[in-house]
Amino acid sequence: MTKPLQVYLVLAAIYFIICFSLSRVVHLVEKRIDASRKAPVAAGGAA
Questions:
Q1: How far, in Å, CA of 4 to CA of 17, rounded?
Q2: What distance in Å separates the CA atoms of residue 23 and residue 37, rounded to the nearest whole number?
Q3: Selection from 16, 23, 22 nearest residue 8 by Cα
Q4: Mean pLDDT score of the chain, rounded to an integer?
Q5: HEC sequence for 25-44
Q6: Which residue, 11, 30, 47, 40, is CA-closest to 2?
Q7: pTM for this predicted structure
């Protein structure tokens, strides 16, 4: 039989890696969307 603590630690590590990675990706996408929203407004105001 496998050791339950090791199984939980491995699952916790995998969960952390997935959540951390998704958090970083979403943060980068959010910055990119925010930049694309600000750029046309500034160009439109100058014209």
A1: 20
A2: 21
A3: 16
A4: 86
A5: HHHHHHHHHHHHHHHHHHHH
A6: 11
A7: 0.66
